[in-house]
């Protein structure tokens, strides 16, 4: 315990103990130095958390430790020089230098704490303990450097001095960390508070430590010259303040450069944004305007700065701005508000607006930040999607109606054919029957148009020359349209053949010509032109999802009529939609064209201006082989009257249509069996020994399709022949239900000649025994 007795004194002061007094001015100066040092050092060290660069963090770390170390040392020696005793005071230079080094190293260890992003309570305590140790170690090391003195310390006061350093340093560090957050008004008091408390840690520890000291003269005295204590204190203070000034200026310069770099980066981010970023004050005056805003609205920055934002808002929406400002003043925000704005050229655009308040350092709302995104194209795509879904739904409904109507027409047409034969001798009745047949034919044509729109019409696409198809309709069109209509053709002879049903194409062209004529009651011209074009992916709309980018034949039919208003332009392809007077049109012409082109793998576009005319563009896929169709052989009608033999099982859930098919078959000599669904047909197949052919509807109730029935029928009778019937073509059946037809298909309503020819053709085919 010798070291304890040499360091601490537990009894009364020795008789030779020396006493002194303080210069109040130098005491104040020492505390000022301690406080300023703390402010600068803590401010510099706070940058450790704000930089990601290792080099910059090391720079701030060393700078903060050096400022804190020299500041503690300066405060200590000014405090020592403030203490006067009856004998001259001097210091050992090596101990003095060591005390400064100790303070700097210990401060550096303590400031490692500032590298922690989110410090925990024990880390505050550890850092405060380290910094308190730096202050205490520096003080007592410096005291050990005093010449001609033997110094003892009172244990209780010695402990108190260390507690002052530890507790005050911990509190100061806690305030310093929390001063980095919040508004400017909140941060400044916290920073000053942390500096004042750290000043207490340094100066408080020093003077408490001085109170713990008992000075006695050394046995061997070293001759020293008397020091001018105020002068030396002023010199040390001047040097330290210079160091602090340089550090503070350097810190300010670097912070300013960093802030400028951040500002430039933020400005670059704002300027490179694809969204318009606009700043305005609470009076709706524009204060900032980025490049995207220039592109979006057409106004340059110089044209908008200092101007009211209201110039971008349509008259009927001006009240939105006042409501927005009121919301911002109350601290609210507005996110993804969809509205309309007006460009410099007068064009209205759809926009999505996000608005938030701009606050100053005192957290006061001083302006508005507005981010605007142009969603015009998005809105158009949404509209196209809705229109596509609408057309698809109408198509499904129309197809279903047409299918049922086919069944009804099949019954009517079939029975009229039978009646016609029965009343051949009664001229008056025969004329009535023929009139009914004409009406039924018109109904079949109407059904055909409905099927064309719903893409369920039976097509026979072949390589077709556009020139030939257009030439074929020219003579008919001239007679149909009348002398007031001039037809002009501009045909590109290099356009390859297209893959399309020739009759369907000619019908579509004639429909468009008639529609164009009706749009020109006082006469005008129709221009039909062709060319080859490449369709890019961005040209295709949502409703064109079945069309692939590539090369297409482009047919344009233009008129000089009255045009179509924009508000109804999207409806013109809908079935039964017409602007013609009652009785002048069915509203199926354009819908038939639309459905036919889409079923052919193409797409349709329409462009119109009121009082200028309308252009309808059709894009059709090119034929892969570029080969023109061969001539189709005519049906041998002699076979229609020849008597046949054999047994046919007819399956159809529509009773009346079943009767028509049976009548057609029995008329030419076939024996018939009947069933209304799959299960009942299977019973007949199992019961009857001889059945040559199965004629079955494809879509039937009862959970069994015609294709499934045929497969089961072949299990009973491997040699049975199969013919299918449906109001849907095979392609549509495959698309809608995945049904793959493995035989001949007769479309409803039945055409008697085609019906008989198909049945005879299948019955005459040799039996496959393999």
What labels would you give this structure?
770 residues, elongated, 22 helices, alpha/beta, single chain
Mean pLDDT metric:
79
Low-confidence parts:
582-587, 626-635
Overall, the morphology is: elongated
N-end to C-end Cα span: 118 Å
Q: What's the gyration radius in Å?
A: 50 Å
What's the multimeric state?
single chain
Instruction: Please give the number of β-strands.
Output: 21
Q: Helicity level, as a percent range?
A: 40-55%
SS element count, helices: 22
- Fraction of residues in β-strands: 15-25%
Q: Biggest sheet, strands in spatial order?
A: 6-5-9-8-7
The class by helix and strand makeup works out as alpha/beta
Q: How would a crystallographer describe the biggest sheet?
A: 5 strands, antiparallel
Descriptive notes:
- Helix content is 51%, strand content 17%.
- α5 crosses α7, α14 packs parallel to α15 (502-518) and α19 (678-687) runs parallel beside α20 (706-716).
- The chain is elongated and about 160 Å long.
- The strands form six sheets. Strands 6-5-9-8-7 form a five-stranded antiparallel sheet, sandwiched between helices. It has a five-stranded mixed sheet with strand order 11-13-14-16-15.
- It is built from 22 helices and 21 strands.
- The chain is an alpha/beta fold.
Secondary-structure map:
Blueprint: H1 2-7, E1 21-22, H2 24-45, H3 54-81, E2 83-84, H4 93-111, H5 121-144, E3 149-153, H6 155-178, H7 184-212, E4 213-217, H8 229-272, E5 276-281, E6 286-289, H9 291-297, H10 301-304, H11 319-329, E7 334-342, E8 348-359, E9 365-374, H12 376-422, H13 427-453, E10 462-464, H14 466-481, E11 485-490, E12 498-500, H15 502-518, E13 524-535, E14 550-559, H16 566-569, H17 589-599, E15 603-609, E16 613-621, E17 647-651, H18 655-667, E18 671-675, H19 678-687, E19 693-697, H20 706-716, E20 721-726, H21 730-737, E21 744-747, H22 752-763
Parallel strand pairs: 11-13, 17-18, 17-19, 19-20, 20-21
Antiparallel strand pairs: 1-2, 3-4, 5-6, 5-9, 7-8, 8-9, 10-12, 13-14, 14-16, 15-16
Helix pairs in contact: 2-3, 2-7, 2-8, 3-4, 3-5, 3-7, 3-8, 4-5, 5-6, 5-7, 6-7, 12-13, 12-18, 13-17, 14-15, 15-17, 19-20
